[in-house]
Amino acid sequence: MSERNFGSRTGTSGRARAEEVHIGHIKDVSAVLRLLDELREDLNDAKAPTSTIEMVDDLRIEARKPKPGKDVAEHLMERLSDRGLGERMKELEKAFDALF
Fold first, then answer.
1. Would 32 disulfide with which of 25, 63, 66, 79, CB 3.0-4.6 Å?
2. Whether the Cβ atoms of residue 64 and residue 18 lie closer than 8 Å to each other
3. % helix / strand / coil in the chain, to the nearest 5?
4. Which of these, 33, 31, 36, 34, lies nearest to 85 by C-alpha position?
5. Is 64 left (phi over 0), alpha (psi -120 to 50) or beta?
6. CB under 8 Å to 64, separation ≥6 — which residues?
């Protein structure tokens, strides 16, 4: 029987990877997703253009990535700010900063 060296990344269950999942990150992502859901709902109620809602959806996709791209998120938030969502974006920017 050969021995395998799985390294220090696997825990006793063989599934958990410490550097990939941690509670703080999950809470940060949850906060961002909550804000994006609220924004999307408000945009739907206001009958905002589809392109604006799609940008919110793109931000949601970016937030769910294990390592979200700061440049992508900043670009999308800047475009949303240009559409009259400046005040709402400040709160979202603070939440996104915790992800980077």
1. 63
2. no
3. 65, 0, 30
4. 36
5. alpha
6. 29, 33
* Residue 71 located in a structural domain: yes
The residue written with tokens 């939440």 in the block is: 95
pTM of the model: 0.70
pLDDT tens digits for range 21-61: 445 567 888 989 999 999 999 999 999 999 999 999 999 99
Number of structural domains (the chain) is: 1
What range does the domain containing 57 cover?
29-97
Would 63 be classed as within a structural domain? yes
Q: Is residue 3 part of a domain?
A: no
Tokens of 13: 């269950």
Query: How many residues are there in the chain?
Result: 100
